[in-house]
Amino acid sequence: MIPFSPPHIDEEIINEVSNALRSGWITTGPRTKKFEQEIANYCEIESVLAVNSWTAGAELVLRWWGIGPGDEVIVPAYTYCATANIVVHCGAKPVMVDIGPDFCMNIEQVKSKITPQTKAIIPVDIAGLPCDYIRLQEIITSPEIQAMFLPANAHQEMLGRILILSDAAHSFGAKYLNKATGSLCDITVFSFHAVKNLTTAEGGAIAIHLPSPFDNQAVYKELNILSLHGQTKDALAKTQIGNWEYDVIDAGYKCNMTDILASIGLIEIGRYNSKILPKRKEIFNSYSDAFQSDAMFETPIGQDETRESSYHLYLLRVKYATLEQRNLIIQEIFENRVSVNVHYKPLPLLTAYLNRGYNLTDFPISKQYWETEISLPIYFDLTEEQVQTIIHVVKKSVHKIMGE
Ligand SMILES: *Cc1c(COP(=O)(O)O)cnc(C)c1O
């Protein structure tokens, strides 16, 4: 069976994890701080805070921004549940918009969903392809939209507009107008979960890139304290002789990254551009070459005039398949010993959101793309031979079920 997305763990990673374990410091410490600095260098920004997941990091940002009951946060209907769950955790309302032909949030639709309650927008760089951040920025800074914004605290007053919080769980290493994700909007959160492009088993990072007069290093400190119970000194600082005294300035959260996990991330980021990204791109392009010439398929965008993906997922569509046919095709592919997946079941179809009154018929592109989508394996250890097997099996299965 060809698996869908196993992690690539080799001796280099195992050695570095052993080094961390042997160092005597296993929680947040020097390796985590070095990892943060390397992410910041990679993104060409100043401040990055490592955390224990995307979910915890992005929720921390919403809490820091003051999101609560009565607020609205705009999210795409076509994403992983985490994007909207964090809004619900804060007691606010996720307002959903449909996607466009690139699977990213339809930016023009965002405009019609903005109200005086809108405090943040969470665009998702789905499959690794960045959203149109310039167009989004234009919309939220247009005079009529900005005049609608009602700041409710000092941070909101300082920005004076809706916050853009990018869900870059898929897009570490992707580019928009030649700039890396992490540097494209106010705050970007990455995921380093086991299936993502760059992994620490579980983990995430908050890239802080707020415009002036924000001091991004000061925001880093605020978020860092909030990620450690609101405590003014972390465990490492308290190990300095006589330095035991601390205060808790707010009832904070607990979502710091550990040095054990950061040690995996340090190895991964060190070979990200030279090995991981090129391998994914090669597989992505092999699939596109094979499926583009067949009228049955719609292939995803890896690169266009303004963007380059991180090639995290390969979202293939069987253009004219019904939901039943798509499901039969997946069954057939699995019977041929290839693992595939579906990204994503739109949020309105999930019980949690169905029960909150969302309706898939309000999001026609999400519905159509979900019903026709099949995600193909894409990962470091996939061999050229396996790629050819996957192409063969997918084509055979699709033509068998679609009857052509
Ligand atoms: C994986 C994922 C997340 C959640 O990441 P965690 O690190 O597991 O919390 C959020 N959004 C999207 C789009 C994802 O794919």
Write up what this structure looks like:
The chain has 404 residues and is an alpha/beta fold. 41% of the residues lie in helices and 13% in strands. The chain has 16 helices and 13 strands. The chain has a seven-stranded mixed beta sheet with strand order 1-9-8-5-4-2-3, sandwiched between helices. A three-stranded antiparallel beta sheet has the order 7-6-11, with no helix packed on it. The longest helix is centred in the C-terminal third of the chain and has 21 residues, at 272-292. The mean pLDDT is 97. The protein binds pyridoxal-5'-phosphate. Residues 53-55, 79-80, 82-83, 124, 167, 169-170, 191, 193, 204 line the site of pyridoxal-5'-phosphate (PLP).
Number of helices: 16
What is the helical fraction, as a range of percent?
Answer: 40-55%
Cα-atom Rg, whole angstroms? 22 Å
Give a list of the ligands.
pyridoxal-5'-phosphate
